Fold this protein.
Amino acid sequence: MSIILGTLQQGILFGLLAIGIYIAFRILDIPDLTAEGSFTFGIAVSAVVTIAGHPLLAILAGTAAGFAAGILTGIFQTKCGIHPVLAGILTMSGLYSINTWVLGEQPSINLISSPQNPVNTVFSIFEEMLSGIDKDIVRLGVIFVITALVSLILILFFKTRTGLSIRAAGDNDTMVRASSINVDRVKILALAVGNSCIGMCGAIYAQYQRFADINSGAGMLVVGLASVIIGEVFVGKKGVTLGIIFAVVGSVVYRGIIAAATYYDIFPAYMLKLVAAVIVAAALTIPAVKNRIKLAKSKKAIKNAGSVKVGEQNA
Amino acid sequence: MLDIENVYLTFFKGTPNEHTALDGLDLHLDEGEFVTVVGSNGAGKSTMFNAICGTFMPDSGRILLGGEDITYVRDFKRAKSIGRVFQDPMKGTAPDLTIEENLALAYSRSKKKALAFALNKKDLDVFRTALAQMNMGLEDRMKTKVGLLSGGQRQVVTLLMCTLVTPKLLLLDEHTAALDPQTSDKIMKITQDIVRERNLTTLMITHNLNSALRTGSRTIMMDSGKIILDVSGEQRDKMSLQDLLDMYSAKSSKVFDNDRMLLTKDRADKQD
């Protein structure tokens, strides 16, 4: 039971990460490596603010941290003309130092509460408030409500004029420019919104596990991509609303796969990222393989048709 | 409405590939004028459009639109009052968005509220009426992704996107060249209807000399970044294709070297 609840909690929480990756990867068509930095940035900022006694503010601060990271990458990409992937790498790399500094020049800090040093998190606040209900269910509830709210806001956002211009910018930026829209600003905003989700995910995760580690972000882009791609298995690419919802669903399924595999001792937990990488690589290979099969089939068909003709002539 | 004054633009300046694309270009367009532009490859027709749109900034000279100096205004800002349809049907629309979303995006240049819903009933009615006027049945397919439309249908959507909010200037860059002859004729007719109805100031590049002379009210011919011929009124009405070609040879001291133009001339001759 607790494994299932734990999987749901993590799956839905990391759904925020998946949404952030979805915005960059599927809407803007950029694999944004900023994610690995902004996730840890969210964690670090949240940890420090939480220890200072403001768990709710910590989540907002973590979100703002992600937003700032996204803006920086956006400026690198548009105003500075740096290759999109490199722009993300630069931000990510630079953030490693910033994050270490935020964490008080140490690789990790923990948020464990003790009688001398009580540390409240959003989870402990609600656990106390709803003390009659099982703690794991309260935690799941908190995570679900936050993720649902963020998803709803983003779904509505992508229906506004600004949201529409973001979607168009990923599709055909010549046309967006011709519609008198500042494409640079639109791209920067999109990256900021995406990384806000990722920063928020990190901020909540720090409180969830009561631990902040400088290396938490490693591999997060691929984990998010895996979630997005698993989500697309269910509905395909059918617009942003379904895309956002199923990024979260994909994240839950992905955590489920990992949880099941470690529970039944199929592979240890540290295989998590390898599995993600394999899923992403395999999913992105499918179109190429399909083409090859199609080509091979039509080649065969032509060959067969040819041999029949020859046979007829002989007869 | 449009004034291009002594505009120079040189590519790859100071390298062996140096190329003067616009060589002291002068052009004045009155409001409501429909001007067709002809000229061989590399004459500077598209470069002129790019300079008007701000894709390239000129080295010197001025460009005024409606009396306002736009020479160094950034491209997306001046796009507010300029509509442009490209030769490539892929360029004007976002393929993953639906027809109504594409139109909504273009329509938003007249709107201020960035966080208002892009698709609202009032605007959708405007789009439906406008699409119905095109007689292509697109008003019933507003939720179709534009990527699924044919080239001609996409050009119609682009044309509509450019004119939904009346632009000060409409630029048509061989916008029917990638279409089959029937569709091309149809789009050309729709274009003429829209331009006439809205009294749009229009520049149209075409490689079809016949349609250059029969469409609009004035024809200019470009060569080596300059306008070498500018005819309108009676002189233009009396002009034949051969006259146009002869004038080209005389003015540019070379034979018309654009295969496509000669081919379309053949076709036009046969039709005659």
